[in-house]
Structures are given as structure tokens and as C-alpha cells.
Amino acid sequence: MNKKLLVTGCSGFIGFNTVIEAISEGNFVIGIDNLESTYDSNLKSIRLKELNKLKNFEFIHKDIKDKDIIKKIIDEKKIDCVVNLAAKAGVRKSISQPADYYQTNLMNTLNILEVLKLYPHVNLIQASTSSVYGNTKGKFVEDNSSINQISPYASSKKAAEDLCYVYSHIYNLKITILRFFTVFGPYGRPDMSIFRFIHWIYQGESLKINGDGEQKRDFTYVSDVVRGILSSIESNWKYEIINLGSDHPYSINYVIKLIENYFGIDSKKEYGPSDPSDIRSTQASIGKAKMILNWSPKTSIEEGIIQTCKWYEENEDWAKKLEY
Q1: Model's pTM, two decimal places?
Q2: 109: CATH
Q3: Residue 264 CB contacts under 8 Å (≥ 6 apart), including other chains
Q4: In the predicted model, is pLDDT for residue 283 greater than 80?
Q5: Quick check: is 14 in a domain?
């Protein structure tokens, strides 16, 4: 593609994988990250160390709440597309830290939009989440206008989507909103269920499960999500919302069984009360992604779990020391 990309949140899980694949496809990437510690910052440092080995990558340790930094990068580096993956993630933490989530997820997006109105030729890919659908029944469809969020995290991400629409309408910006569905894979976040379950099972610790474990998630392997991001870089539409998911929800208990089968371990499970911010089931409608991005997931939950467990085994010496 030979594009110049600005990837915010480059040391995050999805950002890290996006940078690697974007460079492998011939792009030049400027990565910006404030390296904040919503989860164990040691993992971000490890990811960043890997990124800094790459040619055609430049890292800037700054916060995107600094609007002047964004403008300087876009102007001096002649950026073609901004991939905004910087976010404060985690549904449960957002309940106790709502102001931090709105600052990062909404107000920092506003900073980017305020700069991009001066550069309408620069595309924006804005990361969003399946959490914006709340407890919607059936498949989650992008044009459903009756969705209600049930956590500050989800609300902050939906507000950012709405703000993107406003700026696209007023300033004719080209914006793609990508709603990610429970992304997992190597170098994943240690505060997410799959990484925790792999760690606990491999280390012989008890599993802590919210609810009965029969809640279902549309798990999506990270390389599939990255393909969707990179397929959006040269988009010509004004504003689109697109789901990136597997369209195949599986229960938490099923995922645990896959991990147990890989390691050959029967784990001890501690089931606790359901969390009020927890969505019972998610399932992406991916017809739109297939139609306008020519995208569909390639990695099954079974294969994805195998690859993630294998990665943990290979990196167990430091992965076991992360804060879970």
C-alpha cells in the first residue's frame, strides 16, 4: 500500500499487531502511545521493544490529549490515514473510573477530529466495540438505532462514534468506525478472560468466573481484526460503521474446555455472581464487512485458542509474571 499511517495506542494489543502487519505490507507507521497502565504496563513495554526492532516504524511517547502533537505529526510526516486505537479499555474498571474513560475515549477522539478538519484528505479509522450494542437480542446489526449501552466504557465509545459522525457531516471527513468483537490472540491483554484462563490453567490456579459461564461471546482472532483495519485504510466513503466479528458466539465454559484440552489439565473453577455490566451474549452481523471490505474471519475459535496457548507456553518465563 505504501501509505504513511499514524497509529494511536500502538503499544496496545490491537495496535501492536496492526503496526506489525501494516509494515509487512509496505507502509510506514508512526506510532504514538502514552503507555498508561489500565493493565500491566510491562506487557506494553515488551510489545514496544518488539516494534522498535522494525524498519519503517517510528515511536512517539506522547498523549493524544495534546492536540498540537497530533497536528505536528500529521503535517510533518504527511500522514495518509489515522488509525485511532488509543482507548481506555475494560468494562468493569469504567464503572469506578468513568471520568478517565470519557477523557480518553471521547475527548481525545475530539482532539483528533479537531485536527483532521484541517486535513480532510486524511482518512480516520476509529476503533469501537461490540459493547455499544448493550443487551441487544439476536445478531448485532450496524444500523440498529435502538441500542442502549450499560457501562461507562460502552457509552464513551458510542459517544465517540456520534462525534465522528458530526465531524464527518460538517467537515466532509472520511471516517470508518470499526466495532470489534472480543478480540483475542498472542500478546493479548492480561485483564481479559482468555488470557487469564490460559494463565490460571497453565499455572494450576483456580479460575474465577463471573456468572455461570454460559454467557456467550463472539470471539475474534486478532489477525482477522487487523486485516479488517488495513482493508479500511483506502476507503472512499464518507462515514461507515462496520462490525468485525466471527458471527459464531461460544460460551465461556466452551473456551475454558478448549484451553484445558490443549494443556491436558482439568482446572478448578470458582463461579461467582454475574456482573451488572456484563452482556449475556454477543453476535456480530458481518454481512456489511463482507460486502464493502471483502472481509470475513479466517481463524476459528479452536485454532485461535491453540495459537494463543502455544504463544503463552513459548513466552511463559515473562508472561507468568504479569498482573492478572
Answers
A1: 0.96
A2: 3.40.50.720
A3: none
A4: yes
A5: yes
